[in-house]
Each structure stands twice: as structure tokens, then as C-alpha cells.
Amino acid sequence: xxxxxxxxxxxxxxxxxxxxxxxxxxxxxxxxxxxxxxxxxxxxxxxxxxxxxxxxxxxxxxxxxxxxxxxxxxxxxxxxxxxxxxxxxxxxxxxxxxxxxxxxxxxxxxxxxxxxxxxxxxxxxxxxxxxxxxxxxxxxxxxxxxxxxxxxxxxxxxxxxxxxxxxxxxxxxxxxxxxxxxxxxxxxxxxxxxxxxxxxxxxxxxxxxxxxxxxxxxxxxxxxxxxxxxxxxxxxxxxxxxxxxxxxxxxxxxxxxxxxxxxxxxxxxxxxxxxxxxxxxxxxxxxxxxxxxxxxxxxxxxxxxxxxxxxxxxxxxxxxxxxxxxxxxxxxxxxxxxxxxxxxxxxxxxxxxxxxxxxxxxxxxxxxxxxxxxxxxxxxxxxxxxxxxxxxxxxxxxxxxxxxxxxxxxxxxxxxxxxxxxxxxxxxxxxxxxxxxxxxxxxxxxxxxxxxxxxxxxxxxxxxxxxxxxxxxxxxxxxxxxxxxxxxxxxxxxxxxxxxxxxxxxxxxxxxxxxxxxxxxxxxxxxxxxxxxxxxxxxxxxx
Amino acid sequence: xxxxxxxxxxxxxxxxxxxxxxxxxxxxxxxxxxxxxxxxxxxxxxxxxxxxxxxxxxxxxxxxxxxxxxxxxxxxxxxxxxxxxxxxxxxxxxxxxxxxxxxxxxxxxxxxxxxxxxxxxxxxxxxxxxxxxxxxxxxxxxxxxxxxxxxxxxxxxxxxxxxxxxxxxxxxxxxxxxxxxxxxxxxxxxxxxxxxxxxxxxxxxxxxxxxxxxxxxxxxxxxxxxxxxxxxxxxxxxxxxxxxxxxxxxxxxxxxxxxxxxxxxxxxxxxxxxxxxxxxxxxxxxxxxxxxxxxxxxxxxxxxxxxxxxxxxxxxxxxxxxxxxxxxxxxxxxxxxxxxxxxxxxxxxxxxxxxxxxxxxxxxxxxxxxxxxxxxxxxxxxxxxxxxxxxxxxxxxxxxxxxxxxxxxxxxxxxxxxxxxxxxxxxxxxxxxxxxxxxxxxxxxxxxxxxxxxxxxxxxxxxxxxxxxxxxxxxxxxxxxxxxxxxxxxxxxxxxxxxxxxxxxxxxxxxxxxxxxxxxxxxxxxxxxxxxxxxxxxxxxxx
Lengths: 543, 543
Known about the structure:
The structure is a homodimer.
Chain A: E1 2-7, H1 15-31, E2 36-38, H2 56-69, E3 77-85, E4 94-102, E5 105-111, H3 123-126, E6 136-138, E7 141-147, H4 167-172, E8 178-183, H5 191-206, E9 210-214, E10 216-219, E11 222-225, E12 229-231, E13 237-240, E14 247-252, H6 267-285, E15 291-294, H7 299-312, E16 317-321, H8 329-342, E17 345-348, H9 352-366, H10 373-394, E18 397-400, H11 404-409, E19 422-423, H12 430-440, H13 449-453, H14 466-469, H15 473-485, H16 490-494, H17 500-512, H18 514-518
Parallel strand pairs in A: 1-2, 2-3, 7-8, 8-9, 15-16, 15-18, 16-17, 18-19
Antiparallel strand pairs in A: 1-14, 3-4, 4-5, 6-7, 9-12, 10-11, 12-13
């Protein structure tokens, strides 16, 4: 049997667009004598469809689209993810389902059993779990069809399990010839190894090949990295799709090998690919073509400019330098040099006259109070206003350039440097920004060396350095990770070898800046816990 | 038996603070020969604790706090809401629970069975459902203890039920003398009648009195309105607490009547109370004392100023007028008159010089492109920057003043008039803003009559009126309600009697402004569907 793993890039909510891609892929597959095309999870709606699922008209329309695809399956099978209405009297009323289409009819429908409801996932908000699972019959074979999370509850693999049921076991106990898992599993650093080991183990344990089609593309904060593949019953990868791009991967059940594309190996390379994909798709799927970036001459904005040029092409990236009284000459020089090397449009808009006019207008109201964070923030917000004005006038999307360490500590200005449509590296800690910049410069110097060698500074007051306000990043970042990603508390972090008052202050700082993060633009998620959709903290709270 | 319904105002995350309130209340009750004190849902942690539940150290600390309360219960019982660890091998690992403390020990623990996971509720994200329910034994009586949503699945009351189980039925089938429901049920307009009818029906059907303690106070977007009460087996209210404030309500099971405080009846009065409570608690619980408001001389900002004065006292409210070239004289006059009537500090900070400096700095970059929304937004963002500067300099919280109709249509400026710590009326549609203003002026004119009579305008370009860009609000608001609150689609709304292209444009406008709402400050929720935490829409999406 010839199976095509259709690793496609859908658009959330775009039912007709996604239907067209599905139909084109099926038609193409028919010309290649494919028996079965396997699409990713919720192919029709895109993933995650979020509250669109609560709209009855949306679910109905998605059913109509499935019915429009069905006639295309003469002589071929297709597994398509969609929203299936739940007609019983209790529950949410919708399943997250896979339809097996075949010979112009819906052959069987398979609902998701395990509904991830943690971090960025809200599936219990929308879906009812499958009451039971049954293998599908297709061309004399028994297919064990599961959906994403269904495969993530293997008793042998995990310690504490999130769910009581194991739908993979339920399926294999009914004898299956082939396991098929359709997924929309987002990229995070370090996750691929976990997936590899788990898939391999499951295929081996059940002695059944595992076909796994994953979504590819960026949807808001989430980046789906593809890496669709087939594991044989020995737990080895037989065929493997390209990662971070669309791909159609052929798997012939009668062959012991096939297409095996090399995947992105090195961590920084993978992170770079992920960010470029997430950035490109967000800009495109929001209907934009060009972006504008405020270039401070520092590391973060330089890196974002490099990513944007890679993702969108240099003709679609505009860099703006906005020097003020505290901007060093080297900063402006570095920003100019970077744009020269990248070949992007570059403009200098000094903010000093505007800053002065604010100070004059506010002088009598400030009553001789000394220069403080107020005046720092005014400068940052002037820059935000200018970038937004260019966005309004020319239709650019503003990219904000803050990193995760800053966002954790609130070392950033709301409506200032935080302004923008997408926060490209807001889930990348500062130490990793350095690593990524080194990766960018691995073959030739793209980001000027002086950007990498100078101590980080916001340049919002005289001789300011990040380290005046923050611990050095190599000290800070592991603490942030412990508190934010690993859910550790004060005692656990102190036990890592720090002074109590030092950690107390950092935790207090992280906690008290929830209000800023609440109003941050969406940021691309690359770690196991990003600020944003999967981070839900009270703002007004005590300790 | 004498029962005290302790309708207290907890702070989310403030375990020690909440513990103190609980202990003080128990001590006070002991002096009054109370048998049992009933606190609201998740008393210890505050509600909603959100992702704090995922922190192991937080759950452990909450258990320690419960253990600190237990010794206080000599000769008295207390039902306290807290997070109970789930020691079994599967699931999230935490229950949303009620501990019955009595005579210095934990007499029994009762877990929540039904976990609301819709709108602003994420309980399936955090909690495991109770495997089963059993009545508690207390002083010879059988108490059917349930938690909030547990009572919201009565088969006779609802058509389609969200859950298969009905824990109230499960309890009453085991014979109970008294039903006790501890809640954290947020205020929305129209909800109280639903609760009244449902509680009454359940008490009558099971022929058992129902004791119901609800939380009071504001926590971020949510306003809890109290209204704790007891329904007798005839479904009548026997005792009733004050609404929108803390209260300790006595219920004597041997008496057929008791304290019965009148509740806020009229819709606008109730809305006014709710907004004041939400505003006051957000400001206080965030650690602020004073607020600053940009006063345009229009209806929205005038109303917010009135609410702020009521909630915080006139000495804690500062009004700022920021006129520019398009500001009418009448606007500034009305703003001044309002502040005079309210007796609040008032400052005028003209933005014309700053606006001019932006236009000059941007002139060459704008390449003679005509005046458009860019220049409108620059003005709004200057005002946002000034308010934030005053916030930074003097420690004020900025209140933003946009209404729900604007936020739906994106008729507002990100980082401009949307800037602030709390969006006070962002869930109040413009037509309801008028009603509320009329309520404010019911006895004497507080908001100047000319504010109410002039057509709404943003005054960001010459002779601008809202109706140049938007349909009249009495037409628009029902359409927004249909699409946002009632989940209706294009066809349903057209069937309400509108032209298709007219509705298509409105829906397109609502959909395309998701990016603005994503970065909006938290807003007080007063309708069944507010933008914000309970509204989760993709930003990059197709249609």
C-alpha cells in the first residue's frame, strides 16, 4: 500500500482555502497511484481554531467542506482532520476528529480521545473525548487511527500520566496492521528527541508500523515543524519528511525504506529555522508583506532584522534608527552597518526634538522631580509611536525585538519597545540570543562584531548598562528558566545555590510585571513555557 | 444549627492574607455561638488562582495554611475552599476542594465534580474531577457539600447538559439534611435571575434547604457580586446577604426567617455597583491608590471618572485634558466642568507642540502622503504616552476609557486611548454607556448635559463624528451582541433583517481587529461574553 504523508501548511479558519489545498493534494496523489493520503490534525480548520469551534456556523461550514472533498476520493483514501458534531445530549457538542474518506464516501470517523488542556492547549474547552475507539478498515487492512495527544499517554513512557485511558493500547488490542497518528504538535526546543523516543518505543512495543503526519507552518505564537515520518515495528525511522517546510512524503508498506530527508540537527540551526518560519507565516497570514524594525544597534534588534530578511526577503524589511541624547555613536554606526550588509532600506529619524517637546510640555506638571524611569519610558514610547506611524502610513507590520529575559523581568517599556504586531524573540532568553547571533555569524560576520562584544544597554539614560538593573544574564537566565519553565519555587531555586534575598527579588520582579506581559504582542513560542497564551497568571495578586 | 455564610473578599495568591481573614472570621463566629462557618470556593487561594495551581510549592503552601486554620476550630465547624493534592497515579494532580474542619481536625474533604472549562473558566486545565461524592457528617446532620459548577447541571433546568454527572443528585440520593454550595460565581448582567430560578428549583425538587456562599470582590477582569443566601425546601429565600460588599450572614436552621438584605434591583444600578467594585479592587489589589484618566469631554471618559470617584474617593482621581488642533472648545469646557463637579484634580496638557514635532520629524519620511489615520493615531498615542508618564512619575494607575462597541470595531488606537492598567468599561456597549450615564445623572446632573447630547466624536481630524466610520450605535450594538455574545454567524444576523454586505463589513471589521484586542489592558467583564480572557480567537486567520 502506498501512503502519502501530506505535511501541509494550513491557515486557521480558512475553510475554503484549506479545502482547496486538500483537494489539490488528493488529485495529485491519484495521478501517482497513491492508496491513502494522510493529512495533519484538524486539516480543514487549521490548528488551533480556538473559539471558532464554539461557533455553530463554523462547525457546520466545516462539515460542508468535508462533504465537498468526499467526491474527490474515487479510487483513493484520505484521512482528513475536521470538527465532527457530537449529536448526543451531553457535552460540548463537538469532536476533534479524523474522517477516512474513500471512494466518494465517508468510510469512518475517528474521534480524539485525549484532549490536551495545559500550556497553550485548551481542547477540553472545545471538545468531547471519543467514547471509544475502533480500527478503520481500508483495503483489507486494519488502521489504528489516532489524533496527536492520543499517542502521548503510553504507560511505559511516562511516570505520572495525565489520562486514565491509552487509546493506542485500546486500538492495538483490537489488532491493527498500521498505526496512523495525525498531529498538530508545535515545535519547542528539545521536544523532537522526546517524540522520537516515544514513537520508536510505541512502534516497537506494539510491533506495528507508525505513520505520523504533523502540521507544518506558523499560526500566531505556535510554530509547527513538520518532521512527519514512519517508524517500522523495530522502532526505526523508515521515511522522513523535510522539517520547517511543506512536504509530501511517500511511504510504501511493501518497502523497507524510502525518502529519508535529513532534518535540521543543530539546536541553533533549528531555532533559527523555527523563528523564520513563525515570523514569515505570521506576517503572511496576517495579510502583510513588509515589516519595519527599530534598530538600536544592539543585539536583539540586529538578530530580528537578520531573521526578517531570511524569512521575507531584504526588499520587505525596513530598518529605522531613532537616536536620542543617550544613543552612542557606535550604536547608530552599527545599525547602519548591519543594514548595509543586509541590503535593507534604512532610515534615521532622530527623536530628540520630540523628546524635548514632551519634556517641555510636562515640565510644570513634573514639579522639578528628578529624571527617572519616566523619562526613559517617554523615549521608548516615542520610538514605538514612530514605528506605528510608519506602519499606519505604509502598511508595514512592526516587529518588536525584546528577548525573554527582559520580558520576564519587565526590563522593557509597555507601548515603547514592546510595541508591535509580533514579538519575534520574546521566548528566547538573552544568553540564547548570543548563541543565535554567533550561529548567524558562523560563516561570515553579518551582525557587526562590536554589537556582540559591547555590554547590553537600553541607552535610555547616561552610561546605562543592563547590568545596573539586572544580574548578569548567564546568572539570571537559569533562574528565570527554573521559575517560569520548570515551575520551581523560592526554596528550590535557593537550593540551586543562590542567596535567598537575591532570588526573592528576582521572583518579585517577575511576578510584578505580569501587567506588562498581559499587553505584549504575540511572541513565537520556542521553549516549553513561553509567556503568552500558555502562561496564565493573575495580575492583581498577593504573595 | 447556626450557620454563618462568610461572604468575604479574598486576594488571589495571598495565602497568608486569606488565612488571616478566615481565622478572624472563625474566631468571631465562635464568640457568637455559630456551629458552622461556610466560606466561598477556593477561599485560601482566592479565585481564580490560574496557573498558580500548576506550582507545586503553591499547592503545598496552601495545604500548610489549611493546617494552620484547623486548630482554630475547637467547638465549631468551618467549610474552607482549598487545593487538595490528588495522590493517585493519573491526572493533573490537584482537586478543587472543600475541607470541613471541625474540632481541630479535618473532618472530611469534598472535591468538585464538574469543572467549568468555557469562557473565562479553565478548570479542566488544573483540576481532576471528584471520583465520587459523599455527604459530610456534622453534628448529626448530613451535609451535601458541593462546589459552584456542581450545582449547574440539573437535568430539569437545562436543555443540553455540559456534563454527564449531576453531583447534586448523587448527593441527595444518599439522603442529605442540608445542601451547601460554595461558589466563586462571577457577576454578569442577567445572571442573577438564572441563579435564583435554578437554586429555587433545586431546593424544591430535592426538598432540602440550600445554603450558598458566594465570593465577593473584583479579581482582574472578574467581579464577584456576593448575594449569598439560603433557599428553603419550598424554594424561597430565607436569608440573603448584601451584594457587592463583604457580609457575614446568619442562618439558623431552626428559624423560618432571618436577615434578608435587599439587593440591588435595577439593572443600571447593579452595573454601576459592579463596575465600582471591580475598579476599586483592581486598583487596590494591584497596590495602587490613585488613578489618572484622560478626559476628552466625551461620554466614555466622563463616565469612567464618575465611577472612579465613587470607587476610590475624589482625592484619588486625577483628570487630564489633552487638547489638540481638532479638540472643540466645548470638549475642554465640559471636561473642566465635570472635574469641578466631581471635585477632582484637573490638569490641562495641550499636545499641539508635541504633535507638531512628530509631524516635522516624520515629514520627509511620509513623502507628502495625505493626512490619514496615521496622524489620528499619533495624537492618541501622544496622549497615551503622557498618561503613562504621569503614571510613572506619580504612581497613578492609568484607567482607559474605551467602550465595547469601539473595541469590537477596532475604533480605538492601540497604545493610544487603549493604553492603561484597566479598561473600566470595555465590556459596556456604547448604548449602555448612555443608559449608565443617565443613571448617574438620575438625581442631579453630574455629567454635563452637553456631553450626553453631542454626537460622539474622537476629535482626531476635522469635524470627525463616530458615525462617519461606524453605523449608529443603536444599530451596531445588537449586531455586535449577536456576533460576539450569541455566537451567531453571517446568515443568522442577516436573517435579523439586515443587508448582507452591511453585516459582512461589520463582521470583517470585528474579525480584523483581533490584534488590537490581544494587546488591550484587562477589562471588567459584565456581559456573558467579554473580550479578554474568555475570548480566545486566532489573530492570523483566513475566512
